[in-house]
Amino acid sequence: GATELGPYRHYMQKEIFEQPRAVADTLGGIEHIDPALFGDSAGTLAGVRRVLILACGTSSYAGAVARHWIEALARIPVDVETASEYRTRDSVPDPETLVIGVSQSGETADTLSALRHARALGMTRQLAICNVAGSAMMREASLRFLTHAGVEIGVASTKAFTTQLVALFLLALVLAKQRGRLDAQAERDHLQALRHLPVALQAALATEPQIIAWAEAFTRKNNALFLGRGMHFPIAQEGALKLKEISYIHAEAYPAGELKHGPLALVTDEMPVVTVAPNDVLLDKLKSNLQEVRARGGELYVFTDAGTRIEASPGVHAIRLPEHYGLLSPIVHVVPLQLLAYHTAVARGTDVDKPRNLAKSVTVE
Ligand code: G6P
Asked: Where in the numbering of this chain does the SIS domain appear (predicted)?
């Protein structure tokens, strides 16, 4: 059952390892890309001209990844905004916008009030992506998608995040198909890649022994930098958030290209630099960012995948996933970062499932 730890030491570890199942359950028996996946029988999604994603914490990073997918596949402009900021800002409403609330709990006060605020401004086309069926967000939205992560107990979100990403990728495919940007072959290929995700996630989970060795080095650090580019920048942000939440190590994420505009000043041999380096079009640029770090004595911890020619060398540690996962790569690359935060926290002896000062669901603004 959901509340039994089984062979795991903490709920967070259990939930990290449940991700192949959670993703498979969220996909269910899906055979076609159809707006009905989001409860849309009235053509709401077909009519939207912009997307605004509102969320907090880890859920907002799912939105930030989805922005890349929706813009690239469906060619619809996407904004992602922290719910508390949107809620309190004098923004310009646009009724043609699809407003998406992404939330594990469906009860986060800032996200809920941001969605209500958008509605009050006339933005009534709203989609809730939540992990709790009867939650306030799911009740109030006209369109909804239930992720099937199952009950998540660890305060730091893991399996809810990867299932939110699956939901958002499906949405990108729906919007693309409606706009004539997804032919039958592409639809089959994307669905096949989605069905392969549980296997890909297993491969990422299998890096755990290597990550335990890395975590040992991280326990003695006070700071860490996380780098990524493109749709893996939000994954770097999520890695940094996880590390600070549960291990209490100060961690910051930067888009790798911004390194030279500030954080490079912090890089010494005391600063571990964790990098998400999949084999995508940004790899060459990323490699030169990594050289900038090495030249200042920074120690690199690189998560890469097939065919990148990034090898371990003095000052460079590398863990390689066996395949490159294309557009779905962020869903796979987040797993080793979750494990790194988890094992660092365990080695530091923190209360992993209930980090100090944090709550699972923040129901006050
Ligand atoms: C809290 C939790 C985070 C979570 C965030 C948003 O801060 O500790 O893990 O990402 O709330 O929660 P939600 O339920 O809206 O996804």
From this structure: 41-181, 214-355
Kindly state the average pLDDT of the residues 89-105.
97
pLDDT at 3 over 90: no
- Per DSSP, the residues of 312-357 read -BTTEEEEE-SS--GGGHHHHHHHHHHHHHHHHHHHHT--TTS-TT
* pLDDT tens for each residue of 168-205: 999 999 999 999 999 999 999 999 999 999 999 999 99
* ipTM for this prediction: 0.97
Is residue 159 among the annotated active site residues?
no
pLDDT digits (tens, 9 = 90+) for 223-272: 999 999 999 999 999 999 999 999 999 999 999 999 989 888 999 988 99
Name the DSSP class of 298: P
Q: How far is the CA of 295 from the centre of ligand 1 (A)?
A: 37
Model confidence pTM above 0.90 = yes
Q: φ, ψ for residue 280 (rounded to 5)?
A: -115, -175
Cα(130) to centroid of ligand 1, in Å? Answer: 11
Q: What is the 3-state secondary structure (H, E, C) of 206-239?
A: CCHHHHHHHHHHHCCCCEEEEEECHHHHHHHHHH
Which amino acid belongs to residue 184? A
Establish whether residue 108 lines the binding site of ligand 1, counting it when its CB lies within 6 angstroms of any ligand atom.
yes
Most informative mutation of 129, 157, 158, 238 for ligand 1 (most atoms within 8 A of CB): 157
**Short-list 268, 271, 234, CA closest to 254:** 234
The helix-helix angle for 329-348 and 159-178 (nearest 10°) equals 170
Q: Compute the distance from residue 350 Cα to the ligand 1 centre, in Å.
A: 19
Q: Which atom of ligand 1 is nearest to the CA of 155?
A: 8
pLDDT of residue 2: 67
Question: Does residue 130 line the site of ligand 1, with CB under 6 A?
Answer: no
Q: What is the largest CA-CA distance in the chain?
A: 59
